[in-house]
Amino acid sequence: MLKLELVEAVLARALKGGADFAEVYAQRAKKRRMKVRQGALEEALSGLDYGAGVRLFFGTEVVYAYTNDLTQEGLMEALETLLRAKGALGKVDEGGKGGLDFRKATPKGLHAPKVPYGEKDKRYRLERLLEAEAGARIAPAIKQVEASLLEWEEEVLVANTEGVFAEEKRVRTRLFVLAVAQDGAEVQTGYSAPGKSVGLELFDLYPPKAVGEKAARQALTNRKARPAPAGTFPVVVGPGFGGVLFHEAVGHLLETTSVARKASVLADKLGEVVASPAVTYIDDGTLPHAWGSTEMDDEGRPTERTVLIEKGVLKSYMVDRLGHLLGAIDQAKLDAFYATVAAAPVDVVYLGEAVCSRRHEYRHADWIATAERLADAGKEVVLSAQALMESESDLKALRRLAANGRFLLEANDM
Q1: Whole-number Å distance between alpha carbons of 253 and 248
Q2: Which listed residue, of 58, 157, 175, 188, carries a Cα 20 to 30 Å from 333's Cα?
Q3: CA 269: distance to chain centroid?
Q4: Are the C-beta atoms of residues 327 and 364 closer than 8 Å to each other?
């Protein structure tokens, strides 16, 4: 979708503009929709959306711009806009390409379709929809039926200044049937909408006639249902949309961008009971051909299975790059580690990040506060500088350490 040389030029310019980390995310999405109503084709639409975003990190401050101009001029214009907004334009020498070493990730095709969209024509799709529409007409009370086929075909590219260069093709297909049942003035609806990360083999997994019949039976059942009584009752959360409800109620509270800022009621509760023992909550992007499964996440990392809540106990958070930098989890681990060091039988403690400027579990004030706690515990503290200076922000961090006014500074080099 984007040539490696173009991506490299954009990311190298971002580093030379003063960013600690830069990322390019590009996406091209083809979308198709076909709909029949009352046995006739009503709609056949297709569209193409594409664009790219550039994200820059300056410590834990993040700026972002996007464009649908995927030429070098378009991407560079978006980047320069960010650098001007940050006041970093021209801050560092413009020479060189930045020495980026990309590690291209090859997709494994874990969710690849068995029947790609291109293997079947529009007539095949129309015939399947008419099967679904006919399948819903199981009783005279079914007055109206609508059947739709939705197809998504996406190409995604993620590249960043840590060498990630990952691409993936994503395919998702959904069949939707809506049935309307009417008996006099009483009107009720039912629907069935199976979808997976597959191609047109969806029709083999979920025969259209059966999908239509399921929607109709739901409408007929609803037509005879009694009004729900008022009161307090147990709630049964089923699969499918129940997961969406649970995510909205709990999922956002587990995102580290909220946790780190103490904007979540679940902040600082790792290892504590936060729900009924009946609740286990798992974020799993690896399920084969599941609707939300992908080989990589939107930061280019391989998707994982993460247990968030297990039998009511909070086990983990959902961590992205910004949440990690904000220190939602790792700062607590460092605090605990240095508390152990304070009580350990050692005389001298070297303190600081000497290897990677991209790690920000502690910020400058955190390092100094930790150094003071260790000094109060009787330790001789030496601050460690980063071994390899790659940007103006690295030099700023070094100057702040040197100006601390109390502790020795170890000057590292490679």
Answers
A1: 9
A2: 58
A3: 23
A4: no
Residue with tokens 């006014």: 405
Kindly state the DSSP code that residue 253 receives in the 8-state scheme: G
Residue by residue, DSSP assigns 132-188 as HHHHT--STTEEEEEEEEEEEEEEEEEEETTSEEEEEEEEEEEEEEEEEEEETTEEE
* Distance separating alpha carbons of residues 335 and 352, to the nearest angstrom: 13
**Phi-psi domain of 405 (left: phi exceeds 0; alpha: psi -120 through 50; beta: other):** left
pLDDT value at 149 more than 80: yes
Per-residue pLDDT at 394 exceeds 90: no
Please give the Cα distance from 310 to 215 (Å, whole number): 35
Q: 349 phi and psi, to 5 degrees? A: -125, 125
160: tokens are 């960043």
Contact 125/149 with Cβ under 8 angstroms? Answer: yes
Q: What residues pair up with 191 in beta bridges, in sequence order?
A: 178
Cβ contact 212:132 at 8 Å: yes
**Contacts of the segment 136-140: beta carbons below 8 A, 24+ positions apart:** 136/177, 136/179, 136/212, 136/213, 136/215, 136/216, 137/212, 137/216, 138/213, 138/216, 138/217, 138/220, 139/181, 139/216, 139/220
Q: How far is residue 260's CA from residue 328's CA, in Å, rounded to a whole number?
A: 4
**Residue spans of beta strands (DSSP E) within 193-294:** 195-196, 281-284
The better pLDDT of the pair 143, 260 is held by 143
332: DSSP letter = H
| CA trace torsion 145, 41, 151, 68 (10° rounding) | -120
Q: What is the pLDDT of residues 190-231, one digit of tens each?
A: 999 999 999 999 999 999 999 999 999 999 999 988 888 999
Distance CA(358)–CA(176), nearest Å, equals 45
Could you give the strand order of the β-sheet that contains 313-314, starting from the edge strand earlier in sequence?
281-284, 305-310, 313-314
What CA–CA distance (Å, rounded) separates 12 from 28? 24
**Judging by DSSP bridges, how do beta strands 348-351 and 380-384 pair with one another?**
parallel
Our CA angle for 125, 26, 120, nearest 5°, is 15
Distance CA 218, CA 396 (A): 65
Identity of the amino acid at 166 = A
